[in-house]
Amino acid sequence: MPFHTQLRVRQQLYFDLLDAVSSRWAILIIEQLNNGPMNVNAICQRFQYVPRRVIESTLNHMQREGVISILANGRSQGGETVYSLTEVGQSAVAPVYALHTWARTHHEEATALAQGEANAARFFMMQDARNNHSAHDDIDIN
């Protein structure tokens, strides 16, 4: 296999793991599982606004990437699988908390900047439309 292909494959594996710990729901799940093992119902109760299928899909992705595992006993009293963080998942806790804190800290600033950019783009589009309209007004069709 050529080197560039090998590099692409390694990068893809790296990004799969990164996605498994950095998606919005994965971050929240990691923060919850850091408090101890939980089943899907308990996780869903914490995030009632998130559809259960989204939580389950995120849990499956995180398990495939080795971030979480099913406990040895396998099932809770309610018959649902109990998840816990693996050592890899535990090692992601500090960076995940840092990312979450960073986002909370800079959210308003980033939103204001994005809004400012959107307003500037609208302003320049309106200016351009006015200039094009004025240029056509100057044309003498007689």
UniProtKB/TrEMBL annotation:
Q: Where is the signal peptide?
A: none
Q: Name one GO molecular function term.
A: DNA binding
What positions does the domain HTH hxlR-type occupy?
A: 11-111
Keywords (A to Z) from UniProt: DNA-binding, Transcription, Transcription regulation
| A Pfam family that the UniProt record links to this protein | HxlR
Among PANTHER family, the record links this protein to:
TRANSCRIPTIONAL REGULATOR, MARR FAMILY, TRANSCRIPTIONAL REGULATORY PROTEIN
**What is this protein's record name?**
DUF24 domain-containing protein
Q: Which organism is the protein's source?
A: Bifidobacterium hapali
Upper taxonomic classification of the species? Bacteria, Bacillati, Actinomycetota, Actinomycetes, Bifidobacteriales
